[in-house]
């Protein structure tokens, strides 16, 4: 294993009764990466993150995080790790400063110079003027900044973030991602689960999960370039009717209406005529041309590929 490897899992699985939440997951994350976990609800993102920080014991497989084999070394790992969940998990009836002081004590941070350290932290996350506000009275974006400040207070080498931006507005999401890149620039490795394509696109590397399985892995650009399914753009006078007809074709994987146009994801080898012919036969006007693949196409193709399609060369 390279010294730059921060996370490595081999054939990792987690079963809850009849549910196989994580299924034979093998992945590797290297230092300084902003590694994204993208997947539909219930695809196993949170369960994987919980196993990686030692909160859950795997049913099978191996995990090494920052050189520690889990679950055995979970206690030692805690000091080197930051874990932030989508739910605000600080004390609502304590102030911003009280929350940070409390966490500093939990992390055993030295009391000498602590005041200055917390001032710097609050300055970085624009919490200085809010220091005496009860955490429960902060806005979603402010609570998120406080949660991030709390998560990085002990300068962890690895941050695991579980859908950290699900409760905040677009500007706060952008600010949050700026903060993540600043941390990555300083050498922190980040693993972030998200539902948002624009966030996934910003990651240096991406794992797409579906039903607990790794269905795609690579940089967003490489994944888009390697997409075997191609998107076509269809212009028609009656997009709603055209959408219904196109969905009935075996070559069509998905159809999304974008304004008045339809963006159609099709199996490899499908020509524009394959789509326009049946539409014209049904009395609809239709033109179609190839479109540039997006990360959303990669996601849709990876999570909708049938086992039969997967098995074909
Ligand atoms: N403690 C648990 N007990 C039983 N089943 C669980 C438990 N935790 C998760 N699951 C199940 O495991 C599967 C994966 O859940 P998980 O929360 O990891 O997915 P996710 O990708 O994080 O989804 P979301 O985006 O909704 O958070 C789901 O079917 C879920 O119901």
Could you please describe the fold and organization of this structure?
It is a single chain. Helices cover 35% and strands 29% of the residues. The chain is of the alpha/beta class and 313 residues long. Strands 6-7-8-3-9-10 form a six-stranded mixed β-sheet, sandwiched between helices. It has a four-stranded antiparallel β-sheet with strand order 2-1-4-5. Strands 12-13-11-14 form a four-stranded antiparallel β-sheet, sandwiched between helices. A hairpin with a 2-residue loop joins strand 9 and strand 10. It is elongated and about 80 Å long. 36% of the residues are buried. Bound molecules: adenosine-5'-triphosphate. Adenosine-5'-triphosphate (ATP) is lined by residues 16, 19, 21, 39, 41-47. Keywords: ATP-binding, Nucleotide-binding.
Task: List the topology elements.
Elements: E1 5-16, E2 19-30, E3 34-38, H1 45-52, E4 60-65, E5 68-70, H2 74-77, E6 81-84, H3 96-106, H4 114-124, H5 140-152, E7 158-162, H6 170-185, E8 189-194, H7 197-202, E9 205-210, E10 213-218, H8 220-225, E11 230-236, H9 239-247, E12 252-258, E13 261-266, H10 272-281, E14 286-290, H11 295-304, H12 307-311
The site of adenosine-5'-triphosphate has 11 residues, from strand 2 and helix 1.
Question: Could you give a short description of this structure?
Answer:
By secondary structure, this protein is α/β, with parallel strands linked by helices. Helix content is 35%, strand content 29%.
């Amino acid at each position: 294993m390279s010294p730059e490897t921060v996370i490595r899992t081999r054939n990792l699985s987690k079963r809850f009764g009849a549910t196989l939440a994580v299924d034979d997951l093998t992945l590797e994350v290297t230092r300084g990466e902003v590694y994204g976990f993208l997947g539909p609800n219930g695809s196993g993102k949170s369960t994987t993150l919980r196993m990686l920080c030692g909160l859950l014991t795997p049913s099978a497989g191996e995990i090494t995080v920052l050189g520690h084999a889990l679950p055995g070394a979970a206690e030692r790992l805690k000091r080197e790790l930051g874990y932030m969940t989508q739910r605000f998990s600080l004390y609502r009836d304590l102030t911003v400063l009280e929350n940070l002081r409390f966490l500093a004590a939990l992390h055993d941070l030295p009391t000498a110079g602590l005041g200055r350290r917390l001032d710097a932290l609050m300055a970085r996350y624009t919490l200085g003027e809010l220091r005496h506000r009860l955490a429960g009275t902060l806005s979603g974006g402010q609570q998120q900044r406080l949660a991030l400040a709390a998560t990085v207070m002990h300068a962890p080498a690895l941050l695991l973030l579980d859908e950290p931006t699900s409760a905040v507005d677009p500007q706060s999401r952008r600010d949050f991602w700026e903060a993540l890149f600043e941390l990555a620039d300083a050498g922190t490795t980040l693993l972030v689960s998200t539902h948002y394509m624009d966030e996934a696109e910003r990651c240096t590397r991406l794992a797409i999960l579906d039903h607990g399985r790794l269905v795609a892995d690579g940089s967003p650009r490489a994944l888009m370039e390697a997409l075997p399914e191609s998107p076509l753009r269809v212009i028609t006078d009656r997009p709603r009717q055209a959408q219904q007809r196109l969905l009935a074709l075996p070559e069509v994987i998905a159809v999304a209406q974008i304004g008045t146009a339809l963006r159609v994801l099709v199996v490899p080898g499908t020509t524009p005529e394959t789509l326009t012919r049946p539409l014209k036969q049904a009395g609809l006007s239709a033109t179609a041309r190839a479109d540039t693949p997006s990360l959303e196409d990669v996601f849709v193709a990876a999570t909708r590929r049938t086992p039969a399609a997967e098995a074909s060369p």
